[in-house]
Amino acid sequence: MSHRCTYVLALLLVALARDGHAFVHVVRPGETLAHIAERVYGDASRENVLVGANALDVQGGTTISPGMHLVVPAPLHHTVARGETWTDLAGTWLGTNDPARAELLASANRGYPWVPPVEGQEIEIPAVFTYIAGDNESIDAIAGRFWGDPLLGWVLNRYNGRRGMGVPRGQVVLVPMSGLHLTDAGRAEARASAERDGASDRMTLEHQRSADAELPALLADVRYGRYAEAIADGNRLLGRGGLTRPQLATVQRALVEAYVAVDANAAAAASCAAWKSNTQNATLDPVRVSPKVRAACSEQ
């Protein structure tokens, strides 16, 4: 995947985590967007949702290739608790309790925003995806493309809290998709994706807890001159991945000392740059830090 595609995917996932719902599909050999849409939505024409949600047209084409990661917008379901209103639910599931979002959520569930949902009622939270506008686009054209009715551009504007017909290139428009349902195969893939994400989160937490337990030994190795051990242990901790920024800063700072001690100046400089990138207002005390360490960090 190109750096640009990776950046766009990261942007979309961040936005979806905040404002909508999605899972990631890894393209298999022989798949097309229509095949994927048919499999997950039961409707090949929904490939336009995959194109828009992944900014494929903005990137200069809609061709996909094996191994590519695609964001697949998906709805969620929620059982209404006592006292919840459409406004409350919009704030929880659609990012804000703005009246426009409460109205859309009520309408998607055949309700009215002024009539609260019934306790115990299962409601659908519409799939919402982040669309990145291309050249010469209008809000009516976007509504027509995804909702099938260009006269609903004003509804899309209201949902996004924006005005005006024109949409500048690169502007983000949130597009809610009421009635976008997953097939059995789509639901199974969404569950598998959630399980993978959960396993990844658990592994990251385990790595961070393990690092907390091992960092004192690393610092002791540096303090008592066991530099070879410190270099090996520090790089092993970094190789696990998933460390917090303070943990990264601690490891890299220890590696600076160890590399300087064994005259690995290039490695020391790289570790110092990494330490600074993970530390706010990173400075070295000229009284307490050796001239060699300060030189490796270009502070002499």
Question: How would you describe what is shown here?
Answer:
It is a single chain. With 300 residues, the chain is mainly alpha-helical. The protein has two domains: 3-187, no CATH class; 202-296, no CATH class. Helix content is 53%, strand content 11%. It contains twelve helices and eight strands. The protein has helices at 3-19, 33-41, 47-53, 86-93, 99-108, 139-147, 153-160, 184-223, 227-240, 245-261, 265-277, 291-296, and strands at residues 22-26, 69-73, 76-79, 122-125, 127-132, 137-138, 166-167, 172-177. The strands form four sheets. Strands 1-2 form a two-stranded antiparallel ribbon. The longest helix is centred in the C-terminal third of the chain and has 40 residues, at 184-223. The radius of gyration is 25 Å and the shape is elongated. The two termini are 42 Å apart. The relative contact order is 0.09.
